[in-house]
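Board work, copied verbatim: Phosphoribosyl-ATP pyrophosphatase
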Amino acid sequence: MAVDASVLDRLFRVVESRRGTDPSISHSARLLSRGTGKIAQKFGEEAVECLIEAVAGRQHELVGESADVLYHLIVLWVDAGVTPDQVWAELERREGISGIAEKASRPRG
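↓ predict structure ↓
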């Protein structure tokens, strides 16, 4: 079953709609109410769990952890005021550029 990136756009809209709502009835609202530090910490924890499953070769668990990483990344975007369109535009900008060349073109500092 193929799923396109629009599922991420829909998830973004759902998370965005939870901003400022009752944290006792929405996990997204609870995360957003805790602030950037806690959101970033949770994203990091999920990323580490994803890496553990990848290294262990547990594909099914990796799929679930990957979904968790994407969800928590979207919560981080909502908190930071970043939209999926901004990220998609950056990916399109980089499309067709060597990863080595793209990294070398970034400002240092």
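The mean pLDDT is 92.
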